[in-house]
Design goal:
This protein is an alpha+beta fold and 170 residues long. It comes from Aspergillus carbonarius (strain ITEM 5010).
Amino acid sequence: MSLVNLSHVCSHLNNACKARLGLTSIPNSKLHLKLCLALQNDGLISSVVRGGPTPPPVHPILGTPNAIDEVENIEPLTQSNIASRRLWLGLKYWQSEPVLGKLSMVSKPTKRVTIDVAGLRRVIRGERSESVEGIRSPGEALYLSTDKGILEARECVEKKLGGLVLCRIR
């Protein structure tokens, strides 16, 4: 798991939201895909489509990219083009403000922050636990890498899981 690449993705999404982009792309990796699917599951981004270096066609009515299953004439995945694969993300806006808040990394490549269930309960209540600040506002989210995948902090407490704290959305 490369936290350096994940920090690049976080800063890229921050910049894409500030620039009011409707569609942006990030490098394709398992970690990025799982995080983006967790963001989509929580309603912070509209779509996640795996594709090539060119953007996927946009649905004429919805304005979101079509899923790969619905698109014809896709270049097949080979060993020579695997490095150029991208994840295309549809960003959401509400009243001219981005739904996706500011992303910031909690764990760094030099200092990985793990937390157990008891510490995670304190964080959700708004208290500080070790080096992780509490969640204070309703729109704030904290994403962890656990044995069951990448989950939001509240889901981790429900499932009684701890893990590596990846990033925070304010």
